[in-house]
Amino acid sequence: LTHLIESRKLRDLVHKMPVLSPHLLSSHRELRLAHLALGFISMGYVWQEGQHTPAQILPKALAWPFWLISRRLGLPPILTYADSVLANWKLKDPTGNMDLIFSFPGGDSCRGFFIVSMLVEMAASPGIMGALEVMHAIKISDLTAIKNGLIKVTQSLKTMKENFKLMHSNCCFTCFRWRDNPMLPRGVLYEGVSDEPILLSGGSAAQSSAIQCFDALLCIQHEDETGAFLTRMRDYMPPAHRQLIETLSACPSLRDFILSCSSSDLCHTYNSCVSALVDLRNYHLNTVAKYIIVPGNHAQSMGCPFRGVGTALNTTGTGGSNLVVFLKSVRNTTQKALILERLSESRKTQM
Ligand code: HEM
């Protein structure tokens, strides 16, 4: 695929493709692999010629099977984070070394972006188990189990940050969207599916369901435009992930529970967990500053495998100010969840 994009032969090849029928695909894994493959081919097709001439129409041979498979999976017909990171790996050898299935032009920088994101996600999984333990423990007011579950979440968040430090990539994948994208103001027309172009946000790590699960568990509620954007990103997550975030959000509030019980130990454990999430978001903010904001459009054009396409939150000319406001707002809301009064009260008691 990378070779076909680089040599600008992909579009011609797609034009010769028959309309594929996805009816023989039955298992979830087959469908996810097909979504991943069609997502990568579609991105390559649309952006093959670079930022100035994106394809406005996705040919039926791609659009129709992509549409059908997406409907079966409950995912939108565009390359999502759940494709490019969560499903985009295979075992390289029996010892467990992993490799990517698909990548884009951009060599190691591009591959590094997907692999490091995947390592960050893998580190999140014990934390998700911890979140589930907390969720059950609140229902029976089991303080020890709540504490143990929260410790697992904190450890996960710390490992996620450690893995994040491996990111030395200036690839910016936020250009993979046909919504809020000045290059495709009306979106992309899916031939044979609809007569009107469709607006869709492409893969962004803002679609990471793990981070939104932790927000839901810790009762961190992002509001206004920031909250609306993050909630919209749930439409790009697998339905089961979306459901888990909603289940965690609908549970009795962990924060209220901690405020109502008089355990300064539990309060401290909760605060450590929130602080670990603040730390992770601060690290992310610095990474974004390093790779997108400080170098400006130059880095975007260097980093984007499709030769620099504008992004929604960091539009050309704003110097990244929208993006900084967004990421700082997410970080500040996280910080506000800290139970400060409670801590100072417990300090007074200790004195
Ligand atoms: C060089 C690497 C990275 C860059 C340049 C980057 C860039 C961005 C940008 C531009 C946004 C704003 C939303 C958007 O436009 O879609 C964003 C949001 C976000 N990113 Fe990244 N990102 C990087 C790596 C990662 C990684 C590895 C993760 C973790 C899996 C991550 C997690 C998030 C999350 C969760 C959000 C939503 C805001 C939040 O909840 O804190 N990012 N990122």
Automatic annotation (TrEMBL):
PROSITE patterns referenced in this protein's UniProt entry, alphabetically: IDO_1 (PS00876)
Keywords: Heme, Iron, Metal-binding, Tryptophan catabolism
Coiled-coil ranges from the UniProt annotation: none
SUPFAM superfamilies: Indolic compounds 2,3-dioxygenase-like (SSF140959)
Record Gene3D superfamilies: 1.20.58.480
GO CC terms in record: cytoplasm
GO MF term list: heme binding; indoleamine 2,3-dioxygenase activity; L-tryptophan 2,3-dioxygenase activity; metal ion binding
GO biological process per UniProt: 'de novo' NAD+ biosynthetic process from L-tryptophan; L-tryptophan catabolic process to kynurenine
Segments passing through the bilayer: none
InterPro entries documented for this protein: Indolamine_dOase, Trp/Indoleamine_2_3_dOase-like
Organism domain of life: Eukaryota
Residues the entry annotates as binding heme b: 284
Keyword rRNA-binding: no
Family the UniProt entry places it in: Belongs to the indoleamine 2,3-dioxygenase family.
PANTHER family: INDOLEAMINE 2,3-DIOXYGENASE, INDOLEAMINE 2,3-DIOXYGENASE 1
Protein name: Indoleamine 2,3-dioxygenase 1
